[in-house]
Amino acid sequence: MRKSPIDDGNCESNFLADKKGIGVEIPLHHSISSKETVIMGLQIENNWKIAESTKNIFVEYLQKSNIISNGHSDIIDEYNKIVRSIRKPRIVFVGLSDAGKSTIINSLLGVQVMPTAWTPYTSIIVYVKHISDKPAFIKDDVWAFKAESNTTGFDTTKLEDEQYCTKLCVARGDVNILQQYGTRKGEYFDENIVAAVIFLDNNMLNVVELIDLPGFGTGDREADDIATNSLGQFADVLVYLSPSNGFLTETEQKALQKAIQVLPCFENIENNIPPLSNLFIISSQAHNVKPVSDLKNILDGGYARFKDILLKNKSSIEEFFKKRNETSGYNTEEYLRGRYFTYTTDIPFLRKDFEEEFKQLIEMFPHHIVTKAQEDMKTYIAVTGELFNQTLERDCLLLDEKLDMEVALKQVLAKESSRQEKNRINRNKILREIDTYKEVSLAEFRGKFSRIISVDSIVNIIENKKWEENEKDMKLLVENLISSLNIALKNTTQYNTYLPKLKASVNRYIRDFKNECTISGHNISSRPFDAKIGNVGDYSSNLQINADDMGIGDYILMTVLSPLVLVFGIFYTLFGNWRKDKAEKIVKSFEDNKILSKYEDAIHKFWMVNAKNSFNTTADAIEREWQNELKQQKIFIADIEEIENYITNTKVEKKFLSNIPV
Prior knowledge:
Elements: E1 13-17, E2 23-27, H1 49-64, H2 73-84, E3 90-95, H3 101-109, E4 125-130, E5 142-146, H4 162-168, E6 169-173, H5 176-182, E7 193-200, E8 209-213, H6 221-234, E9 237-243, H7 250-261, E10 279-284, H8 294-312, H9 314-328, E11 340-342, H10 348-414, H11 416-452, H12 455-465, H13 471-493, H14 498-516, H15 536-541, H16 547-550, H17 552-570, H18 578-592, H19 595-637, H20 640-658
Parallel strand pairs: 3-8, 3-9, 4-7, 9-10, 10-11
Antiparallel strand pairs: 1-2, 4-8, 5-6, 5-7
Helix pairs in contact: 1-2, 1-10, 2-10, 7-8, 10-19, 10-20, 11-13, 11-14, 11-19, 12-18, 13-17, 17-18
């Protein structure tokens, strides 16, 4: 339970406490002034040195390592991100322009730095930093800046960027320029100014940075949204001020509801930081409340109204408390009432609770920031180190495979000319074999043709079929002869013994080709050459051809039959050996129409066009596949040097990680 710093042992006291024992102890006989006065600054122990030392160790380690000059941007960026997290916490003061933000900032610092009777332009953000944080190129105590663009304000993370700051600087000088340039009644008021940075030699600023964020809780939705967005970008601690007379209007409650949802969560059960300790909701100008006992009712009423606002926006606020509870391990909502305080400068006990908790939080921050940074760095080392181990294992295996392939490919390419010559010889051997089969097939067919288209053979057919000397039977005779020739053609091409021999030869050619075209050695089995086109099935299907498909039979039928029918009509006789006479005329008609040569053309086409083209197509295809395989393997080994450099860099990064001073 909080105790009042004012207790003379004689005065009657009335302790205004809530159910959690959080409240203000008010001496009933204490006189209250109606005008605030500036008091001495809050005395803060400067324990930021441990954080500064830790940060310097990390920075010096990075500078001394050779990792910077070798361009390891990813690991450096992540490392620097953790190093940058070791920074002074930002205390943001928000509220309406008459809430007393300037007064409390001056009071905490113990110096009149902020104008207390100014009406600022609503978009001006004032940053108060320690003088040691001032960049070398800034010689004045205060610089005021315009916006970077219509959509982007002034970025304080670029405060070390001289070109950036000089370009946007509107005014510079001492603290008086805030009054001159930042108030509507100022002599040089400039509505283009969006931010000002003040540098002070002040004990508190050794540990924290103070920010005055105007334009909050105005009821202007756009302005409130902009302010909330700004708050979420840089607020570590929120100090929300609302005048005691008119404490937390409905408009302010809604703005506050948005504000607490972007507030970071530092506390957890292990680090002993109290729940919601980075939130202060202050009933300011408490000296104006009479009787002073009404302050408890004001705080209770503000809390009750705020709770109603939260209930009306249950879905969004529940999500906030849920996330915060999961992070902290506390039931955060139970501690919300304890974050309400009173404040005034000239009555110590009305600001006592706030100052004690504010001081405790600030002095706790350096240890927390260092601990968090070290934990983050350890996690980063562990996670990234394991990733590097996996990467090294993968890349070393890949490099071994590429090096093995490089050796094997070099051996293959050294033999490539001789392989191509050997393949040319084997290929020509197949083509000569096709030539031989063509000649043999022609000789066989000529013999069959002579036997079929002979006088004796034709006479035997007429007699065996018992055909008569009439147009119908003579037509059947010619059709019979052509059918016999077509069967002979098929037997000479498709069904002969030469085609299976050719297929066997082609299979041997493909098998030998694949055996010759293998990148072997050092167990390179993951990239075998596979001549998918050159197989027996594909090759055989390309040799399917017959006389019927070419229309030879129909052509011969028309060529031979028409003259015979004509002859039959003119030289019809009732005596003599008409069968022999007709056979001789048919033989002569076949000779006159050069029917044999037409069948020979078909056989020639079968072997010289179909067979050769089919083989050449297959041979060309597997050769293309092989050349493409060689090309792909050349591409595969092209980045060996790059992989070696990557492995070397990864080892450097791994060593860098393992030696980080944590």
